[in-house]
Amino acid sequence: MATQTGQIGVTSENIFPIIKKFLYSDHEIFLRELISNAVDATQKLKTLATAGDFKGELGDCTIEVTVDKKASTLTISDRGIGMTQEEVERYINQIALSGAEAFLSKYKDQANNIIGHFGLGFYSAFMVSDRVEIESLSWQPEAKPVHWSCEGDPSYTLEEGKRKDRGTDIILHIAKENEEFLEQARVEELLEKYCRFLPVPIACGKKREWKNGKEVLTDEANIINTHDPLWAKRPADLKPEDYEEFYSYLFPGAEPPLFYIHLNVDYPFTLTGILYFPRIRNQFDMQRNKIQLYCNQVFVTDAVEGIVPEFLTVLHGVIDSPDIPLNVSRSYLQSDANVKKISAHITKKVADRLQELFDTDREAYQKKWDDLKLFVAYGMITDEKFYEKAEKFALFKNVDGKYFTLEEYKNLVGEAQKDKHGSTIYLYSTDRDGQWSYIEQAKNRGYDVLLMDGQLDSHLINHLESKLEKVRFTRVDSATVDHLIEKENQETVTLSANEQDYLRAAVEAAADGQKQSIFVSIEALGEQELPAVITQNEFMRRMKDMAALSPTGNFYASMPGSLTLVLNASHPLIKELAADVVTAKGAEVEAVDKQIAPLRTEEETLRKKTDKLKPEEVEQADKDRLSALSKSIDDLQAQRKEILDGYGKASQMAHQVVDLALLANNLLKGEELARFVRRSVEMIEK
Ligand code: ADP
Ligand code: MG
Asked: What are the GO MF terms of this UniProt record (predicted)?
């Protein structure tokens, strides 16, 4: 044939600057594209052979990738169908791309994804080459070899070629700035990444071996794709060992997974894949980007956010689907109907698998639960559909290590832990050892206590409260055992209002100076109980816990912790202490109160009068009197407080009560602990 030159047919003026400029960042994918074409050509030939159209020998169809550093070439050779001159003209020269330029500049960040989808695959070779040659011989009996050459501008040459046997060589003359693709190791790495599951053997260089402590090259071809893509096989033909082996091939050195799911759908979309559940012990184990996305066994990406629901990104494995539109932005992906269906399907499959494990062998499921729970909690909090399914297989574990489903737990405590308003209170502990005394008291009352010490449990608790009807969660140490669950007839405090008031003020003074601020309250807890206990307000504590989890922190995180010291009014010690304050300071305080009373009455009368008026109508004399009154009252109040403070600060008993309660919670430390010990000795000596 005569040498022919011509112009590559593109509708937009020139495709090359676009390829070079916009697609630069992802230029390594050229190799994936050229190998895909070689695989396609080989598969087509096999199809022709099966159909009986191709009658020759198939022979060894290995695709070879050869690096020639001296010549600066990278060659991809296949033994597929090859191309005739007409085919080169049709498939290579006429890349009819309507509006390609506009499209490419719009999606320049997704070069990786668009290239294959717009028949631009072959032209990606120009991202890394100064010149590209094709040597091809078609399988057709009469075909002549062709040679095509192009230097990355719209002109090309087409002439008779040299290839003797069926197939195609793509010869890339690698540009100076892309020399990395002339490194054997780099090329092998790329083939490993993109091509290791392709269905035609791919050879690159020679196999290496360790000999006498050195790595040496052997004579054997180095085949990249040694493993079958397990996901493409039928689940019925596979054994659990096959899945485990495949996992360790995908993630060398990883701990064995808990279990796996084989995805296999062909309608209304095509999706295959295998997802593994890793063991997740804590949040730091949650490794994302361990799901690899393939398109017909060609690796596409391992960033699958937007394709699978957020909580599923902690799973490991592979997904293969030709139906995920890769030629669009990620934000668009989320609204794509196919992606939504795929995502919903995966969620459903994962939930079904967990349900199946739960149903078939609850014992084994429970053993795995501690490793699974973070994942399930994450799913329940973030995915409504998953929550609906997980309700049946999510487990609660109590402080004795027993497991319950939500339903079972409701049956267990539903009545016994109902409060006077008809809500059921689920008691929980976040620290079995640290909260032991509270757990014990609750258990003595016949209550059950859940262990909620997981990292997402505070979020899960909030979520469950919004979902479960008439259920509230209360941490065991958030109130005294009597008040954890408010029942109808609770013991009442028998101290008089004055006694309570003086006692509270005195003990508050004794507790002043601790690291955390301490509020004092008085309850009748029963004679047998301790004289004083510390509790932490459920709401405030939760807010602080949640704030600590959130990466930005918030208002609550910076709040100082506060404790409530509950004085047991039924305890003889407290009764005695109350009586003693009254004896010691009652007369003094009452004297001050007598002075305050008339001032308050006068203040009230004046306020009633002035409140009816607009501020500018109030007489100056009244204004002056009001502020004088308020100052006098404040002064007297301060005086009153000083009297009671004086008692509290001096009372060894008051200090002892506070310290004992703190001590029971492991909150008394250092200097304060030493002072307590000294005081105890003194008191015993008396
Ligand atoms: P696509 O693969 O999406 O069709 P490409 O730009 O990658 O687009 O390739 C264009 C066409 O060139 C292919 O469809 C095929 O007909 C032809 N072709 C490319 N590489 C080869 C090859 N190695 N052997 C035979 N034909 C090839
Ligand atoms: Mg292609």
From this structure: ATP binding; ATP hydrolysis activity; ATP-dependent protein folding chaperone; unfolded protein binding
Same domain, 163 and 234: no
The binding-site residues of ligand 1, defined as CB within 6 angstroms of any ligand atom, are: 33, 37-38, 41, 78, 80-83, 91-92, 119-122, 168
Residues 345 and 354: their CA atoms lie apart, in Å, by 14
Q: At 555, is the pLDDT very low, low, confident or very high (cuts 50, 70, 90)?
A: low
The CB density around residue 600, as the number of other CB atoms within 10 Å, is 13
Neighbour-count burial of 347, counting CB atoms closer than 10 A to its CB (0-12 exposed, 13-18 middle, 19+ buried) = buried
Bridge partners for 259 per DSSP: 277
SS3 463: helix
599 CB-near residues (< 8 Å, 6+ apart): 629, 632, 633, 636
Q: Is the pLDDT of residue 631 over 60?
A: yes
Residue 55 has pLDDT above 50, yes or no: yes
CA of 123 to the centre of ligand 1 (A): 10
Nearest residue by C-alpha to atom 8 in ligand 1: 119
Q: Over 60: is that where the pLDDT of 387 sits? A: yes
* Residue 122 Cα: closest atom of ligand 1: 6
Ligand 1 geometric centre to CA of 122 (Å)? 6
Average pLDDT over residues 536-564: 70
Closest C-alpha residue for ligand 1 atom 16: 91
Q: Which of 8-22, 205-219, 463-477, 611-625 has the lowest mean pLDDT?
A: 8-22
Residues 6+ apart with CB under 8 A from 9: 93, 94, 95, 96
Ligand 1 centroid–CA 226 distance in Å is: 25
Inform me whether the pLDDT recorded for 444 exceeds 50: yes
Q: What's the CA gap between 579 and 650, in Å, rounded?
A: 16
Ligand positioned closest to the Cα atom of 44? 1
User: How do strand 562-568 and strand 517-523 relate by DSSP bridges?
Assistant: parallel
Q: What is the pTM of this model?
A: 0.71
> Helix, strand, or coil here: 28?
coil
State the amino acid at position 426 in one-letter form.
Y
Distance 3 CA to ligand 1 centre (A): 22
Question: 204 in helix, strand or coil?
Answer: strand
- Which residue ranges make up the annotated binding site for ATP? 33, 37, 78, 83, 98-99, 168, 330
Radius of gyration of the chain (CA): 39
At 264, give phi and psi (nearest 5°).
Answer: -160, 95
**Which CATH number does the domain housing residue 139 bear?**
3.30.565.10
Show the domain range for 458.
394-484
- Are residues 573 and 667 located together in one domain of the fold? yes
Question: Is 610 exposed, middle or buried, given 0-12, 13-18 or 19+ CB atoms closer than 10 A?
Answer: middle
Counting ligands in written order, the one closest to the CA of 163 is: 1
The helix (H) or strand (E) run that includes residue 365 is helix 362-382
Domain final position from 192, 223, 254? 223
Q: Return the residue whose CA atom lies nearest to atom 15 of ligand 1.
A: 91
Q: Say if 464 falls within a structural domain.
A: yes
